[in-house]
Design goal:
single chain, about 375 residues, alpha/beta, ten-stranded mixed β-sheet, 13 helices, 12 strands
């Protein structure tokens, strides 16, 4: 589903006269109500900055990708979390850093993607982070590999936190298929946690978080999509979704792509030529969104793993709002508009060259809450 006029005239009218925004993220419009005047003004300015591709913006970020943990209990193919580049870094986002973020940007943010390259729920402060963000009227979406040790108390804390949506990465119908990509993961464990969260929601009479069981479609599991949808229905998940596989420009990556073109992100015949996009790589990050890593590093994008455009860190005395328009960020915006391929992580972006608008090509909304 491709949203229409997400930042257009209808949205502007809702924002001005109803103080409301329908924010499209992860296959759903999230309705943000009772938007405060400062946030409303910032959204209008952000639309202006984005439209005219301003190098120096009048606005602050409206969205944030925030990494709670830079460590993982799995060793999934294609992930950078457990390699040598992370040595010496702080592995968990501290509450001190989180509070600093909220103090600087909390009045302007409308959505937080609470994940990064590690497993978010290994950070034991994550429930406090979610509650504080939700108390500021911010939509919070998170993702998990599901291989975490939740008991009834933690499940209650998760549900009561107000988390908007929780994506469970379930990439197979049997342990052999599942663990081919999710190395060291337990399918039984993740399904137990799906059941636990669903049952806790029912017991507490809560509709959130929406539980999204997602399958990353690859050559070895593409034959299991029908069974996976049936499994999601049997577990009373709110959403079952199917996502296309990223190309991280690694050797032999094509061997993992499915045969069914319905589940392909790229045209494999032209994969080696990133300039042959059928759908242009539409990216709003330079004008809408920041990335903050678990160690407090601030960059324009989650794929800037080498900190090529490091705007600063949360330990600096420089305010986050100043980083948003510092010399590094302005240089990034200029380069982005002038020659995007000169930015290494843009040139190798897994969204580049895709022939679909949304990498998650199927959303099956199974409950009324998910359809709303």
């Amino acid at each position: 589903m491709k949203p229409k006029n997400q930042f257009g005239i209808p949205q502007l009218a809702k924002l001005l006269f109803k103080s409301r925004l329908d924010y499209f993220a992860e296959g759903k419009f999230w309705q943000v109500k009772d938007i405060a005047p400062a946030n409303k003004r910032n959204l209008i300015l952000a639309g202006w900055d984005h439209l005219y591709r301003r190098t120096t913006t009048f606005s602050h970020p409206t969205g944030l990708m925030l990494e709670p943990a830079d460590v993982c209990n799995l060793d999934c193919i294609g992930c950078w979390t457990n390699n040598d580049r992370h040595k010496g870094r702080q592995r968990y986002l501290s509450m001190t850093h989180f509070d600093k973020i909220m103090k600087a940007l909390g009045d302007y943010l409308n959505i937080i993607w609470l994940w990064g390259w590690g497993e978010p729920f290994l950070n034991k402060n994550i429930y406090s982070m979610i509650r504080k963000a939700r108390n500021r009227n911010i939509v919070v979406i998170s993702s998990t590999n599901g291989n975490v040790s939740w008991d009834e108390r933690e499940a209650e804390e998760l549900v009561k936190s107000g988390l908007s949506k929780l994506i469970f990465a379930v990439d197979g119908m049997d342990q052999k298929t599942y663990s081919k990509y999710r190395i060291n993961g337990s399918l039984q464990k993740i399904l137990e946690n799906v059941r636990l969260v669903v049952e806790t929601k029912k017991r507490l009479g809560r509709s959130l978080p929406l539980v999204n069981m997602r399958m990353l479609i690859m050559a070895h599991n593409e034959h299991q999509t029908d069974d996976f949808l049936a499994l999601g229905k049997s577990l009373d998940a709110d959403i079952v979704s199917f996502k296309t596989l990223c190309d991280y420009r690694k050797d032999d990556v094509n061997a993992d792509f499915p045969k069914n073109k319905k589940y392909l992100r790229y045209d494999l015949e032209t994969l080696g030529n990133p300039t042959s996009d059928k759908e242009p790589c539409y990216c709003y990050r330079p004008w809408r969104r920041l990335e903050i890593f678990a160690d407090g590093a601030v960059t324009p994008c989650e794929f800037d793993l080498e900190r090529e455009y490091l705007l600063g860190t949360l330990d600096d005395d420089i305010p986050l709002t100043a980083m948003w328009n510092n010399d590094v960020m302005k240089k990034f915006r200029r380069q982005f508009m002038k020659d995007i391929d000169k930015i290494s992580f843009c040139n190798n972006c897994p969204y580049k060259g895709q022939v679909v608008w949304d990498p998650t090509v199927e959303y099956h909304c199974l409950t009324e809450e998910a359809k709303a």
